[in-house]
């Protein structure tokens, strides 16, 4: 995501470019076909800024460093997933999410329960000490 914040006029200008899917006040979404073509052109020796300029982008508007940042991300995606990485939605697919609740053995359940009991006992002791300190502080205030 760029550090640029685009106004309505700039967003409309960006969306005129055929290589842009959409633009918002903080981000630009590029078409997958453009990403694939840009990575290919980069591999053939073109500079990131040259690729963007040839495809109708105003570097003053999007930022001079933006082409380099985009190409870096897109090359990594291309190396990991190939062209398919740009054509399919990948967000959330790499995450395993929360672990599923597997069946625990009786020993594991007992160990887990004992650990929880120790934690709760320590928590109770702490709260008792805290209450005692608060009572002592109140008594000192009263005198």
UniProtKB/TrEMBL annotation:
UniProt keyword annotations, A-Z: Coiled coil
Organism, scientific name: Salirhabdus euzebyi
Keyword Coiled coil part of the UniProt annotation: yes
Pfam families in the record: HTH_Tnp_2
Protein name: Transposase-like protein
Coiled-coil stretches: 103-130
The keyword Coiled coil appears for this protein: yes
Protein origin, superkingdom: Bacteria
InterPro entries reported for this sequence: Homeodomain-like_sf (IPR009057), HTH_Tnp (IPR046929)
